[in-house]
């Protein structure tokens, strides 16, 4: 059983004898010679990913103005940065949007412009203190002018990600791209078998202190990322913005959603023993995820089906017996370039591996938010005054007066919703002198809501369709109650 | 071939497409259309081999005809080859070839959906 240490590998890098291969090459090698033999042949496997990573940003120290200012608010090209830390320190997040341009321009664009050597406007306001008397500041700066520009990303390099589709009848513009109606397409993120964490699924070599390629610079893993929940692992990373290359970091806008940034990450995996060789042989078909339905605007989006990265990368998946086209959202092309570049740097002795000083958890839970109350339709709905098809309009009008309601859902003998009649429909029928049965005047295409839907969802439906009540139905279309705009206003009155 | 047809207040009331189909015994695919109060616009696809005579006939009906040569264009400096566009295009202009996104412009019907989908704003539909 061959085994080596990171120190031994670094010595080989130093004398130019280390064998470095990309994750793509490693899969072929292990398949051909087996894991035991691969340890002898290979020292390092390079991995890569290049995708939009919203949880990213940069800490700046601008240096002191004269007279000095303790920034209370600060903007870079009209994009606000957080300065609730020391006087001239601030954190600019990539997704923060411009106060003038909206979602067309944001923190990511400011960061990319700085890396490209451009000048940006720095504007700050303050309340003024004895030690920091200045209250306003406007100046222009470049990346060279700031003391530090340290990229610190709380959540990067998602190991795998849930794919997205849309069952609803409208186009959805999401952080998973544009989702066409009626399962019109599927989108997915991540680079699968070449993505760093998939090649070290037990996080033996990727941990706090692991040296990585971050947007062209030498960066470090500084712990597990936020929402880390293996096998959906994430990393927190840092690196010096001043050493970064715009080729490996690109500002982007997901139309209708907002700004984000494509971040390039490459991680070298030392092949310490046969287990590591086996890990790095992982294939797309072994990496499973789920396709979620973004057509349901809930936290618990329904799973449409299970899927693996091989299927996703094939460009087509089957949903409900139909072939649906798939879009990747991460760039495999740039991820491969990162693997090659990292390989080149290690081979040339420009990049050494580091031993993690603390491992990241292999088990971790991703909890939902604790909320005071989630009001669902069931909590607010009123009993429905149902009528059968064939009811005469005269008796329906009596019922409306008697029960003091404006809406009567029309049901069949099994209690299933067939239509709805409002007091307005009846008034209109009377005015026209038509006094027959309700089926002739009812609206058949009824907008409905589910009992467990959140109240916000119901309110949005009332507004979108410009109506004042929704029948509440179950999966079999049986009427459980009515939700009216009065029911919702009573909630607001209660909260007020 | 794609044509852009512009109707004025007179020609907009004529069944020009139906007449062309019957008279010229040719199939016309309507890609896009909009009719305003006093004018209208259509984008149609016609048989390439008979383009000249079909265009001549439509022009004779008082309709302004422009050949659409400009299709979707991709700025390769901006494109990072993610693939967000590939599942969006109704006529499959975009495909992944050797890990890169390739655009087959000849297929483009100028619907413009992809322009608002690209996260890098790398797609543009030139005016014709």
Overview of the molecule:
The complex is a heterodimer of chains A (496) and B (128). Chain A is an alpha+beta fold. Chain A has 13 helices and 32 strands. Chain A is globular and about 100 Å long. The mean pLDDT of chain A is 95. Chain B is of the alpha+beta class. In chain B, strands 2-3-1-4 form a 4-stranded antiparallel sheet, with helices on one face. In chain B, strands 5-8 form a two-stranded antiparallel ribbon. The two termini of chain B are 14 Å apart. Chains A and B meet through strand 2, strand 20, strand 25 and helix 7 of A and loops of B.
Short description:
With 496 residues, chain A is an alpha+beta fold.
Q: Share of helix among residues of chain A?
A: 10-25%
Greatest interface: A-B, 30 and 17 residues
Spatial strand order of the main sheet of chain B: 2-3-1-4
Q: Would you identify the regions of chain B where 5 or more consecutive residues have pLDDT less than 50?
A: none
Number of domains of chain A: 3
Count of separate DSSP helical elements of chain B: 2
Overall morphology of chain B: elongated
What is the percentage of strand-forming residues of chain A?
Answer: 25-35%
Distance between the termini of chain B: 14 Å
Our measurement of the CA-to-CA distance between the termini of chain A, rounded to an integer number of angstroms, reads 71 Å
Which spans of chain A of ≥5 residues are poorly predicted at pLDDT below 50?
Answer: none
Biggest sheet of chain A: strands, sense, closure?
A: 10 strands, mixed
Reported CATH architecture of the largest domain in chain B: 2-Layer Sandwich
CATH superfamily of the largest domain in chain B: ACT domain
Number of helices of chain A: 13
What is the CATH fold-level name of the largest domain in chain B? Alpha-Beta Plaits
Rounded mean pLDDT score of chain A:
95
């Amino acid at each position: 059983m061959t085994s080596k240490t990171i120190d031994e590998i670094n010595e080989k890098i130093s004398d130019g004898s280390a064998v470095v291969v990309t994750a793509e090459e490693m899969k072929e090698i292990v398949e051909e010679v087996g894991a035991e033999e691969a340890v002898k042949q290979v020292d390092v496997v390079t991995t890569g990913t290049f995708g939009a990573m919203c949880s990213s940003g940069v800490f700046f120290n601008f240096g002191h103005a004269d007279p000095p200012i303790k920034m209370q608010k600060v903007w870079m090209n009209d994009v606000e940065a957080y300065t609730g830390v020391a006087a001239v320190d601030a954190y600019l997040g990539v997704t923060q949007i411009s106060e003038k341009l909206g979602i067309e321009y944001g923190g990511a664009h400011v960061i990319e412009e700085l890396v490209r050597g451009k000048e940006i406007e720095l504007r700050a306001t303050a309340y003024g203190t004895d030690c920091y008397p200045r209250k306003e500041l406007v100046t222009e700066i470049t990346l060279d002018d700031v003391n530090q520009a340290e990229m610190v990303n709380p959540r990067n390099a998602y190991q795998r990600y849930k794919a997205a589709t849309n069952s609803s009848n409208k186009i959805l513009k999401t952080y998973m791209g544009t989702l066409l109606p009626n399962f019109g397409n599927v989108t997915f993120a991540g680079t699968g078998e070449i993505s760093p964490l998939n090649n070290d699924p037990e996080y033996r070599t990727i941990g706090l202190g692991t040296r990585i390629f971050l947007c062209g610079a030498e960066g470090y893993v500084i712990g597990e990322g936020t929402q880390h929940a293996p096998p959906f692992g994430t990393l927190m990373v840092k690196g010096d913005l001043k050493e970064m290359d715009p080729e490996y970091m690109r500002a982007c806008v997901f139309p209708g959603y907002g700004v984000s940034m494509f971040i390039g990450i490459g991680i070298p995996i030392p092949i310490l023993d046969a287990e590591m060789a086996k890990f790095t042989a992982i294939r797309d078909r072994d990496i499973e995820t789920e396709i979620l339905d973004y057509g349901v605007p809930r936290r618990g989006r329904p799973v449409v089906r299970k899927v693996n990265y091989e299927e996703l990368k094939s460009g087509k998946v089957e949903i409900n017996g139909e072939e649906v086209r798939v879009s990747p959202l991460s760039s495999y092309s740039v991820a491969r370039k990162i693997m090659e570049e990292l390989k080149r740097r290690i081979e040339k002795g420009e990049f050494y591996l580091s031993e993690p000083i603390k491992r990241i958890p292999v088990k971790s839970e991703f909890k939902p938010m604790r909320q005071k109350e989630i009001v669902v339709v069931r909590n607010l709905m009123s009993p429905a005054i149902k009528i059968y098809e064939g009811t005469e309009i005269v008796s329906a009008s009596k019922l409306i007066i008697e029960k003091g309601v404006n809406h009567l859902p029309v049901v069949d003998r099994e209690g299933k919703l067939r239509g709805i009649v409002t007091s307005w429909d009846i008034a209109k029928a009377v005015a026209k002198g038509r006094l027959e049965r309700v089926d002739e005047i009812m609206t058949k295409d009824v907008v409905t809501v589910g009992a467990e839907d959140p109240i916000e969802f119901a309110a949005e439906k009332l507004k979108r369709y410009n109506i004042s009540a929704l029948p509440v139905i179950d999966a079999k279309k049986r009427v459980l109650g009515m939700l009216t705009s009065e029911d919702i206003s009573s909630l607001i009155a209660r909260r007020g | 071939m794609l044509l852009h047809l512009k109707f004025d207040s007179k020609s907009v009331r004529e069944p020009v497409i139906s007449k062309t189909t019957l008279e010229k015994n040719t199939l016309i695919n309507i890609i896009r259309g909009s009719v305003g109060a006093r004018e209208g616009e259509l984008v149609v696809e016609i048989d390439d081999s008979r383009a000249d005579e079909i265009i001549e006939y439509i022009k004779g009906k008082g309709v302004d005809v422009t050949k659409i040569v400009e299709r979707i264009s991709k700025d390769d400096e901006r494109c990072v080859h993610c693939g967000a566009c590939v599942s969006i295009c109704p006529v499959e202009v975009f495909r992944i070839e050797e890990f890169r996104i390739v655009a087959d412009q000849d297929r483009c019907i100028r619907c413009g959906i992809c322009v608002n989908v690209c996260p890098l704003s790398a797609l543009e539909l030139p005016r014709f």
